[in-house]
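Let us practice reading a record.
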Amino acid sequence: MEPSTPLALFILYLLLNVLAFCVYWWDKQAALDGTWRISERTLLGIAFVGGSLGAVTAQQMLRHKTRKEPFRTLLMIIVTLHTLGAASWLLAPDLTRRVVAVIAGAI
């Protein structure tokens, strides 16, 4: 199976979100236990690379970092970017591929 197939992308997306949920749970447990915490930068980074749904789910279910600013706002910006990206991929897949190719070429 090619990594670009929809099933492979879905599995990767699912794994990233499960990982994000687990990392947020771990950080919540560390907060309760008073032990070493995971940095906000790492938590937001995991959300940014594809785990935003898992991050928001954990945030709401675990009541973790729900009042912390600017963390909350940055997480919502990441969710918005992911939503816009998914919508563009579904509504205009050819245009989205071209835009991604241009961005990848610029990096």
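A brief commentary: The two ends are 27 Å apart (CA to CA).
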